[in-house]
Every structure is written in structure tokens, then in C-alpha cells.
Amino acid sequence: MRLTLPPAKPVVVRAATLDPGLLGTCARRPERFVIRLNKALTDAEATETLLHEWAHALAWSFTFDRLARTPDTTREAFEAAAHDEAWGCAYSRVWREYVRMHDAEDAK
Q1: d(Cα 34, Cα 50) in Å, to the nearest integer?
Q2: What angle do CA 106, 87, 42 make, to 5 degrees?
Q3: Which residue, among 49, 65, 55, 62, has the nearest Cα to 86 in the 3D structure?
Q4: Which end of the chain has fewer surrounding CB within 10 Å, N or C?
């Protein structure tokens, strides 16, 4: 993904201890994106969550930055903005690339 679907900044992926209901996060830092995956995930869950969070890095916008920093933003408003049409298109691109890479591995 780093080569075929690079976001605007480099991505660092880390396993982390997260709240039980939280599968992963994507945060923009000044020089990079940081994707954290819940250590409790199975391999399949971690893969799906990584693809989901990678789409966040691809679709990131300054509007989203402002919303994330606004103290009175509700969780519902934040989630709606984080999973808007731009994110949906990015998620589709990420899944297509994942399937293409997986098919290429199977062909070897």
C-alpha cells in the first residue's frame, strides 16, 4: 500500500493496547500519519482494520482536522465526517488494491 496508494504523508503502523470496542485509529501528526491497531485483533481483523484506517489517511482533509480539534464536536458528528463520501471512495480504492495484491500473490 505504501507504494501503490501512498497518502500525502508517510504512514507508521503500530500495535497498541486500545479500549476493547476500538479496533484501530488513524491520526495525522505534523510529519506522518500514525495508524494504531488493537493488539487483541486476530490477523484477519487486523488486516481489515488496517485497510479501513489506511483509507482515513488517504481521505484526510483540513476540514476533518478542524472538526477533530473542536472541543464541542459530538462523537456522532465526528464519525459522520470521518466516514464521508471521500472516505468511502478511498476505502473502495484500498480494498481493490488489497484484492489485486492478494490475487498477485496467489498467482505465484
Answers
A1: 11
A2: 50
A3: 55
A4: C
Based on its alpha-carbon atoms, the radius of gyration of the chain, rounded to whole angstroms, reads: 14
Cα 48 to Cα 51: distance, rounded to the nearest angstrom: 5
Question: Beta 33-38 vs 24-28: how paired, if at all?
Answer: antiparallel
Q: What is the pLDDT of residues 26-71, one digit of tens each?
A: 999 999 999 999 999 999 999 999 999 999 999 998 777 777 788 8
Strand order in the sheet with 24-28: 11-16, 33-38, 24-28
Task: Return the CATH number of the domain spanning residue range 11-107.
Answer: 3.30.2010
